[in-house]
């Protein structure tokens, strides 16, 4: 997932059955993996809002990001605090967002998307349907979650 200080991220929006709805992925320059995970959550929520979804279950495999976002009372004093504040504000928009912590093995799709962006030097891209290699991973993720 790392290439110097460039991190790949992936976001997959799926319906209740696990069927792909849309996704995005890209690369960003960050100071930590946590910052990359937070950015992925941020972009996921914006993508879901843009698609007019009103009930969202946002999943992350990053325990630290999950804890930081669930507790609105944690004092924040870092570069990440701006991103955390933005995400917490988005969660308060007029929709229902539930943040869930999942196992890394149930997050293969976004990991593959993140690696794809690093390998193919993709700055940012959106997809309405998954590319061929992701379809099998989607089925594995659904079976694991």
TrEMBL record:
Coiled coil: none annotated. Gene3D superfamilies: Ribonuclease H-like superfamily/Ribonuclease H (3.30.420.10). SUPFAM superfamilies: Ribonuclease H-like. It comes from the Eukaryota. InterPro entries: RNase_H-like (IPR053151), RNase_H-like_dom_plant (IPR044730), RNaseH-like_sf (IPR012337), RNaseH_domain (IPR002156), RNaseH_sf (IPR036397). Residues 3-116 form the RNase H type-1 domain. Pfam families: RVT_3 (PF13456). This is RNase H type-1 domain-containing protein.
């Amino acid at each position: 997932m790392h290439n110097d200080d460039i991190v790949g991220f992936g976001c997959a929006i799926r319906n209740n059955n696990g069927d792909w709805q849309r996704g995005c992925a890209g690369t960003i320059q960050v100071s930590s993996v946590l910052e990359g995970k937070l950015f992925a959550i941020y972009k996921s929520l914006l993508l879901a809002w843009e698609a007019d979804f009103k009930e969202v279950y946002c999943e992350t495999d990053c325990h630290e990001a999950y804890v930081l976002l669930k507790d609105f009372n944690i004092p924040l004093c870092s570069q990440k605090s701006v991103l955390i504040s933005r995400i917490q504000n988005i969660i308060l928009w007029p929709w229902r967002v539930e943040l869930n912590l999942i196992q890394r093995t149930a997050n293969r799709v976004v990991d593959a998307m993140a690696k794809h962006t690093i390998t193919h030097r993709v700055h940012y891209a959106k997809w309405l349907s998954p590319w061929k290699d992701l379809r099998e991973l989607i089925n594995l993720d659904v079976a694991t979650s």
